[in-house]
Protein: Aminotransferase
Amino acid sequence: FQSKLPALGTSIFTQMSALANQHQAINLSQGFPEFDTPEFLKNQVALYIERGLNQYSPSSGIASLQQQIAALIARKYRTQLNGEQTITVTSGATEALFVAIQTLVRPGDEVIIFDPAYDSYQPAIELAGGTCKHIHLTAPDYAIDWQVVEAAVNDKTRAIIINTPHNPTGKVLKPHDITALTGLIEKHDLYLISDEVYEHITFDGVTHLSALMYDALFKRAFVVSSFGKTFHCTGWKMGYCVAPPQFTAEFRKLHQYVTFSSFTPAQHGLAAMLEQQPEHVEQLAGFYQQKRDVLVAALSASRFKLLASEGTYFLLLDYSDISDLNDVDFCHWLAQKVGVAAIPLSVFYKAKSTDKVIRLCFAKNDETLIAAAEKLCQL
Ligand code: PMP
Ligand code: GLN
Structure:
C-alpha cells in the first residue's frame, strides 16, 4: 500500500499523552483543559438531547448558532456579518482548517506557513497537492521579518496561514504585523487562512487582532475558531469558519462531503450559552492569565528560563541551563524520570531546530500546575 503521506507519523500530542499515561506523569503536554465545561452549557446540551434534537442539522449549522457567532463577532470586533452567508459550523477548527485548505489549494500551489507551526496545516496542504514554504521563527521573540516573508512569495504562492494568538509560542500579532501582512496579501493577490482558535485568550492588555477587523484582510480570508478552547469542551470537536459569501459557498461544497453537519445538540447548547452567558467569553482571558501567573510564579525558583506568553494556554521554557539533551529526548526523560509531560518545540519545525525549548499547557487546576512546578524546580 503506497502512503499518500509517507513522512507522517503519529501526532506528537498522541505520543506525549500516551507517555504521560504510561508513566503517570503530570500531563502538561497535549493542550486541553483539566476543568470541566460550564454547567449551563452541559445542561443545555443534555436538555436538547432529551428533547430529541438528535438528527442532522443544516449542513452549514443551525441559524441560531450562526446568529450568536455573528453577534459575538459584532461585539468583539465591531464587524457586522450576515451569519447565514458567511459562517459555517464545523467539527472543530481542525475540520475548518482542512476544508479551507482543500477549498483554496490546487496542485502545484505554495502556501506560506510560519514555523513553529501547528501540526495539521502541512498534511492538509500536501493532500491538496500543494507544498509548504516554511518561514523559520526563532526563540525567544519569534518575531516575523516581513521582508523574509515577501522574499518567499513567488508566482506559485496561493495563501498564507497565520495563527494568532500562536500555538505553541503564545505570541500575538501586533499592528505592524497586520499592516505588513495586508500589504503582502494585496500586492501579491494572496489568500489568507487565519487560525484564531485562541482569540479570547490574551494577557496583560494585549489585544487580539482578528482578520475579521480589517476589510482588506477579510475579503481574502478564511477565519477559523474553535468552541473547544473557549468553552473547555475540546472533546466535542465544535468550531467554525468565517469567510466572505463566495468563499463560504465553495467551502460548504466540501464541508458537506467531509462531514455534512456537526453534532446538533451541541450547536443548540452553544447558541444558548453564547446568548445567555456572554460573560464566560469576556472572563476567559482573566481566567487564563491567573493560570499563567500561577505557573510562572511556581517556576520562578527553577533553572528554566521562561519565555513570555502573551496569549493561548501555553508557556515555553528554555532548559539550556539544565540539560544538553535535544528537546525530544529531554521531554521523554522528563515524562519518565521527573513525572511531567511536555511538548518539544522542534516537532513544530520543518528545518532542524536545536533550540532547547519545551511547551507546557497551563489549562490545568492550580494544584496540578503547582505539583508539576515542584517537580520541575528539583532540576
Ligand atoms: N489550531 C490550533 C492552533 C490549535 O491549537 C488547535 C487545537 N489544539 C486547533 C487548531 C484545532 O482545534 P479543534 O480542537 O477545535 O479541532
Ligand atoms: N491543539 C492541541 C495542542 O496543541 C492538541 C490537539 C490534538 O491533540 N490534536 O496541544
Summary: Residues 279-298 form the longest helix (20 residues). The chain has a mean pLDDT of 97.
